[in-house]
Amino acid sequence: MDASVLSDSLDVPPEHALLVVDMRNYSQLPEAKMAPIRADLDDIILNTVFPQSGLDDPRSREGAYRDTGDGAICVVPARDTARLVDPLLGHLNAALSRYDQSRLRGGSAIWVRVSVHVGPLSLPDHRGDAINEACRLVDSQAVRQAMTAATKHGAYVAAVLSGPVFDRTVHAGRTPHLQQTHFLTAIARVEGKSFEQPCQLHVPGMATETLQGYVTELPPAADAVPADPPPAPAGSGTTMQFLGSMKDTNVIGSVGTYYHNSPGR
């Protein structure tokens, strides 16, 4: 094998940030409405929300935009990861709210699940685990439950952040309008797939306490403090267990005194 080919195959691709958007109930739309609504979503994201968030149009880079039918995958430079969280999520929710308020009678509102991930990715061929993980996140049960919460409380976006994204953006203090308290820790699982990762959920404008009421995919609770053992029955004496032989005469004498003076003797 050519040494240059081997070298390329062993190189770690550059890191990129990924935004995956998936429309709720897109397949249930009448066929005649699918193309117009899908075009409206692209216009909202690429022509409104990206510029508002200080992000370049991903279509300007080869392989950085992919239409998935009911959504899209946008790849941006890793340095822009924080902007995909704040302000983009807030801008996207506000834009979809305006769209809902201005749509004609008989039109359809747009609700979206969004995942944000970061990792090595080869462009334009999209080789790398990062894109698969980003798609699993947006398809996870946890963010689907967050989407249910969003639709019931007047929001239009349910977002899921991978652990690396949360650590590098929110936890690192790079999201001025969003703090850690705006996110709910959950577990991202996808039915039928061997995928399970810790994640962070966010619904713009919703308190995490409210969101938690809809999400069952939560991490195990911290170990509870062991309860005190029940008291021994009256008159039963006290049992002591020593893991080695007693050779210290002071200890032996103390135990003997305690035994003879204990209740019930």
Name the CATH superfamily assignment of the largest domain.
Answer: Nucleotide cyclase, GGDEF domain
User: What portion of residues belong to β-strands?
Assistant: 15-25%
**Shape category:** globular
Summing up helix and strand content along with how strands pair, one would put the structural category as alpha+beta
CATH topology of the largest domain: Alpha-Beta Plaits
Kindly report how far apart the N and C termini lie: 87 Å
By CATH reckoning, the class of the largest domain would read: Alpha Beta
Protein name: Adenylate cyclase, class 3
Organism: Streptomyces xiangluensis
In short:
It comes from Streptomyces xiangluensis. The chain has about 260 residues and is α+β, with helices and mostly antiparallel strands.
Describe this structure in words.
With about 260 residues, the chain is α+β, with helices and mostly antiparallel strands. The protein is about 35% helix and about 20% strand. The protein has two domains: about 10-210, Alpha-Beta Plaits; about 230-265, no CATH class. It is built from nine helices and seven strands, in the order αβαββααβααβαββαα. It has a seven-stranded mixed beta sheet with strand order 2-3-1-4-5-7-6, sandwiched between helices. The protein is globular, with a radius of gyration of 28 Å.
